[in-house]
Amino acid sequence: MPGQIKTPTNQKLLTNVAIVRLKKCGKRFEIACYKNKVLNWRNKTEKNIDEVLQTQNVFVNVARGQLAKRDDLVECFETYNQLEICKTFPFDLYRRAVRVE
């Protein structure tokens, strides 16, 4: 049908988001996690980090979907392996709500 509005398929909406932040080398990095799984990870009941992370990407701003630059990741963490970088985060929850519009 002509005139139909198509929704973008390249957007992934994150729900039940808990943002975990890490400040390193003067830059702030964020990852998106499931809130209840973060609590389990901190209590050592959850062993698989893939169950904790909503996505294995490292962000500069989760709410805006801004990914961290590769050069910044290599400079601060000395690797580009984002799963290994996610394991270095302290997994402290920030109580700020994220609005996804």
TrEMBL record:
InterPro entries reported in the protein's UniProt record: Ribosome_mat_SBDS_N_sf, Sdo1/SBDS-like, SDO1/SBDS_N
Gene3D superfamilies with a match to the protein in the record: Ribosome maturation protein SBDS, N-terminal domain
Subunit: Associates with the 60S ribosomal subunit.
Protein's name according to its UniProt entry: Ribosome maturation protein SDO1/SBDS N-terminal domain-containing protein
Family the UniProt entry places it in: Belongs to the SDO1/SBDS family.
Gene Ontology cellular-component terms listed: cytoplasm
Localization per Swiss-Prot or TrEMBL: Cytoplasm
Alphabetically ordered keywords of this record: Cytoplasm, Ribosome biogenesis
All residue ranges annotated as the Ribosome maturation protein SDO1/SBDS N-terminal domain in the record: 16-87
Residues in the signal sequence: none
Biological processes per GO annotation: ribosome biogenesis
Keyword Cytoplasm included in the entry's annotation: yes
Organism in which the protein naturally occurs: Meloidogyne incognita
One Pfam family matching this protein: SBDS_N
